[in-house]
Please model this.
Amino acid sequence: MNILITGAKGFAGRNLTVNLQAVKDGKNKTKNIKIDNIFEFDIDTPLEKLDEFCQKADFVFNLAGVNRPKNNAEFKTGNVDFVFALLNTLKKYKNTCPVMLASSIQATLQGRYAGSEYGKSKLAGEELFFDYGKETGAPVYVYRFPNLFGKWCRPNYNSAVATFCHNTANNLPIQINDRATELELLYIDDLVEEMFLALEGKPHRCDYNGTNPLPADEGKYCFCPVTHKVTLGKIADLLEQFSEQAKTLVIPDMPAGSFAKKLYATYLSYLPKDAVVSDLVKHSDDRGSFTELLRTVSGGQFSVNISKPGITKGNHWHNTKLEFFIVVSGQGRVEQRKLDTGEVWTFDVNGDKPQIVRTLPGYAHNLINISKTEPLITLIWVNECFDPSKPDTVFEEVVK
Model:
């Protein structure tokens, strides 16, 4: 299959291109698509290449467009005239392969989009596509995208989310006039996933009621079913949490598929080099060291403990707190004594065979480096973040 992508150097184009390239190169084996060539066309591509690409293409993604012109006349040039040229070139070679158009929700000309010159130009491009489909019989996939966000989106251009993420990551202020303003947002990975479905002839179809897509098997339009409606205030609050992570060590709650997870990935993509690495606090003494690594909102905290040869640490018990010990290097022993019976359990562990040893509530426990020469390195997960006002930790030697 030969795939033509117009606007290949833009935000959506770059993300789609690298994902298609991964499939072409066999690096992404999750897609059952054979890709022979990816033709990239952009504003600086020689125009004669459009003939070559349109002659050979088996699928066309038209992601090219103008949304921030110096004057309104450029809307027609980028969003109408180019569409006309693209479709005429396909007709010239009698190529009726499927064609996809990246339009905008502004093309509805509804609500706050009424009178939008950009929306009018996108609507004109849509009509050219639909007319082309009727005339040639080529499959036509017209998508009206809402606001897009994700890695490589250009800040201070056409995305408030990109601007907010870039500024927060670079310690620059963000400006919000109304925190209650709600945006409908489409994450770039969700867009790319939908493009793969379109490539397989399985796009999600819909009709429109104003700006709202109504899923319909025979719908005139296509749409990405996963979007997020979020206020500017919520975005700002999440970004503030993200920016504090290096200090607090707290990883925000990010359920699978959530807006928070996607926004965090977007935020990280704007970090400058000097912010990629952050220092941790290492507590050292003559026994070794202890370093807290990460905290979570609801899943406890993670730490690494290094014990010198022959050293015993712990010798305490908890009412409710749970600890998981995972030895990753060295030779260790975990002893646990049940307080109400005195029964002692002993577990020998080593870094060559990673295992989880669970300390149990009501059991005094310790961690011993049984090597005479090597340090013992143990990753520790605790189901709650340490609270000095309620430590739930009582000193008690396991073996008296």
